[in-house]
Design goal:
It contains no helices and 10 strands. By secondary structure, the protein is mainly beta. It is elongated, with a radius of gyration of 25 Å. It starts with 29 loop residues before the first strand and ends in a 31-residue tail after the last strand.
């Protein structure tokens, strides 16, 4: 028996996809998530020292477009006494029939720069739920933390903050103006 390749001409069925736009107006803090989600937060401890880095994790769990979810800018919601860094994210998604489910973990590093007691507020995750046709909000838990003095002295723990009292500069000579 001689085996020969067979040439087949296959014509796919026409596939029509009806993509609906998200309703307007979109909330200002919309995460990009479409599906059904919940959010939780974990913190390894609630006592810290100044200038010692730690992490807080936010886990978004559910079904939908997990890899497109973004959390709000935490530096705008965290107390100014905590320096917050950009997150690392890890998507753990699996296809379950016609949907994608799993979770995405956002790991934020932060560093307390002052001593005291501070509140880390809950984080809101605004997403669109196609089952209800509405934007919905899930919230993580918040924390109250205590920050003690780190091993360095107060003088070496300089906090750099934006100073709005900038001196005007003459653009030609680059010398400060005398007023």
């Amino acid at each position: 028996v001689v085996k020969r390749p067979v040439e087949l001409n296959i014509t796919p069925n026409d596939l029509v996809i009806d993509v609906k736009e998200l309703p307007s107006p979109r909330p200002a803090n919309f995460s990009g998530g479409v599906g059904k989600f919940s959010i939780s937060s974990t913190l390894p401890s609630q006592t810290f020292k100044t200038n010692q880095a730690s992490v807080i994790k936010y886990t978004v769990t559910g079904q939908g477009n997990l890899k497109y979810i973004n959390l709000p800018d935490l530096s705008s919601v965290y107390p100014s006494q905590l320096e917050v860094f950009s997150p690392e994210s890890q998507v753990n998604a699996t296809v379950q029939g016609s949907t994608v489910g799993g979770n995405v973990v956002f790991t934020y590093s932060f560093m307390p720069v002052e001593t005291g007691e501070f509140k880390i507020p809950p984080v809101s995750l605004v997403y669109f739920n196609p089952e209800t046709g509405k934007y919905e909000t899930a919230r993580s838990g918040g924390f109250t933390i205590k920050v003690g003095q780190g091993s360095a002295s107060d003088k070496s723990q300089t906090v750099r903050r934006f100073d709005s009292r900038l001196l005007p500069v003459d653009h030609l000579s680059m010398e400060p103006r005398p007023w």
